[in-house]
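To: structure desk
From: M.T.
Subject: fold request, one chain
Message: Could you run this one when you get a chance? Sequence is below, nothing fancy, just the single chain.
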Amino acid sequence: MVKYWLMHPDTHLVIQLQSLDQRIAAIEKEVAALPKHIAAIEKTLESHLRKLEADRAALLANQKERKKIEGDMQVHEQKISKLKDQMAGAKTNEQFRAFQNEIDFAQREIRKSEDRTLELMAESEPLDLNVKTAEGALKEEKQLVEAEKVRTRERTAVDQAQLTELQAERAQAAAKLPPATLVTYGRIRKKWKGSVVITEAVEGRCTACQIVLRPQYMQDLKRGEELMLCESCGRFLYYTRPVSFEDVAKVG
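Reply: Done. Structure tokens follow.
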């Protein structure tokens, strides 16, 4: 349906001011969100770095323990060799059994060390794979994070430039409004933060709060002689009347 405006002259300015404030708020929200976005991806990167360092530390500890076990096994093997030499010179059965017991003990320790070495080798394989995989992935992730930082700085610069332009435009629009209207606009905007300040009346209802308007109120609103506020939610209201076929024909 074709429509034309029938409203108080300041209504256009209030609608313009509202549009500017909505655009400014959206850009300010983006500007505020960008550092949080960077902080989030940096936090993720840091968590991946900590995981890599933990795996590196675990792998290093694994390697150190294996090296220590290898040293202990060599000591036991040397001890067994010496005990066998000494056992060859044993003069009594008691001496022979004593040497044999020590040899048995050393051999048991070697078997334990061999079993532990196998466990450590099994543990080291996934650790080694995790470290190598993480090192490659982190290299790419760091590059992506740096690229995202550059993109964010560029986006912030564009947003700041747009904000400067919009705020100047808003100041010009606000200067054209009567001071009392501007004060009322600010009060409504503060009350309904994040919502509209001015809205249309359609089919006898405020489209913001959906409350039915009084018939006499609607008649006064249609005349457009003054800026009017919704009696329920307190927002500015305006009315748009459909254009008749006769009006369209006149315009043509």
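Reply (cont.): Residues 93-176 form the longest helix (84 residues). Let me know if you need anything else for the meeting.
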